[in-house]
Design brief:
By secondary structure, the protein is mainly β. It has no helices and 9 strands. Strands 1-3-4-5-6-7-8-9 form an 8-stranded antiparallel β-barrel.
Length: about 130
């Protein structure tokens, strides 16, 4: 496995008004990111989120297509997010959708860790490039 590290900016744009059903809220947001560091590129995607009346508890899923260069190899791939927050305790899995890599990133697999420090976002991406199919 190789590791890529760097920083990213993210813009989340609401796509619909929050839907309140009982005590929970549902929302849909557009994702626009710009990556720097070992991964240079942009991504676009969508997020679905759910909030609860309990402070610090929520969940989200997201899909984003990344276009750019990973350690100099160009192409695209898709990341899938699955996150929950239980009373302030976060759990997040971000992984490459199998067989979503293209160009020089065909055969890409891996997982990404997101680190937030203040208002800055960083990533650590552990990945492998398998045999081209």
């Amino acid at each position: 496995m190789a590791r890529a590290k760097g920083e990213f900016t993210v813009l989340l744009t609401p796509q619909s008004t929050d839907e309140i059903t009982g005590a929970s809220t549902l929302a849909r947001l557009a994702i626009d990111k710009t990556f720097s560091g070992d991964l240079i590129g942009v991504s676009k995607g969508e997020m679905l989120s759910a909030g609860t009346p309990v402070k610090g508890s929520a969940g989200y899923v997201a899909i984003e297509r990344v276009s750019g260069a990973l350690h100099g190899r160009t192409g695209t791939f898709v990341l899938q997010h699955n996150g929950t927050m239980t009373r302030g305790s976060p759990e997040l899995t971000v992984s490459v959708v199998p067989d979503s890599g293209s160009g020089e990133l065909t055969g890409l697999s891996g997982t990404m860790r997101i680190i937030i420090e203040g208002k800055r976002h960083f990533y650590e991406f552990d990945y492998a490039l398998g045999m081209n199919v």
